[in-house]
Amino acid sequence: MTADANLSQQARLEAICAHLGHHYRIGIEDICKLFGVTRDTARRDVVRLDAQGRVLRVRGGAVLPPQARQVEHYGQRGETSPAKRAIGEAAAALVRAGERVLFDTSTTVAEVARAVRVSPLNVLTNSIDVAEVMSQADGVELHVLGGRFNPWERSLEGAQTRQSLAQFQVDKLFLGACAIDPLGLTCPSDDVASLKQAMMRQARQVILVADSTKFSKAFMHRMCGFDSVDVLVTDRQPPAAIAQALSTLGVEVIVAAEIFGTPQ
User: Fold this and answer.
1) Looking at residue 147, what DSSP letter applies?
2) How far apart are CA 35 and CA 6, in angstroms?
3) Angle at the Cα of 23 (from 20 to 27), degrees rounded to 5?
4) Were both Cys, which of 191, 199, 227, 235 would link to 83 (CB 3.0–4.6 Å)?
5) Are 87 and 76 in contact (CB under 8 A)?
6) pTM exceeds cut of 0.70
7) Alpha-carbon distance 170 to 150, whole Å?
8) Per-residue confidence at 12, pLDDT binned at 50, 70, 90?
9) Which among 55, 60, 57, 84 is positioned nearest to 70, based on CA atoms?
10) CA distance to 47, 48, 85, 202, 219, per residue, from 178 (Å)
11) Phi (first) and psi of residue 104, to 5 degrees
12) Chain centroid to CA 94: how far?
């Protein structure tokens, strides 16, 4: 979506809600950039949508209101593709018995957790889905980070989660991606970026898992460059510009399609 200052307010409100339907959260600065409006206009839009019960105002922007349908929508989004399953298998092969492993929140990262078959392991996560998978695995010592529950992502987040992370040091982090462009990784909110950055600081090795739909896209908040990533596991070869940037910085690229066949 590009900036468009010519939208009527009603059209802009509908577009903001559509954005929230995909990303759960939107910041005032995001609205300004996406729709070419001032901060005052963006705030008025959020106030109006909040009054209509269509969003919940939070510091710096808005999130979807806490309604059961959002959790159901997460379940629909969580339907796993063959590509994500192949990525999960390829990434899980990197785990060694006895390691300390941190799992981020994403449907692709959850597939990595499902595919892990070695033990013993020390596992740390903020994902309810990963915690559920690992709670049923033999030989796993499971630690779940505290924080504010996000029903859309089924995860724990916020300042308490970042503070909890500082108490741990891990061998590997399996990191989910929101969007990947030639400069690195971006996120739809600064909260998401801050949490993922905190995770990377506590890990000796960062393994990014992302299907090819995340390539050549970008959100407003820059999370990191490729110099913060050690390995990328994906289902297709990255586009040329991204592949060149990865190669220049020595990031190992593992293409699951080349191991398990091309997912359809």
Assistant:
1) S
2) 8
3) 70
4) 235
5) no
6) yes
7) 24
8) very high
9) 55
10) 27, 28, 18, 20, 8
11) -70, 180
12) 20
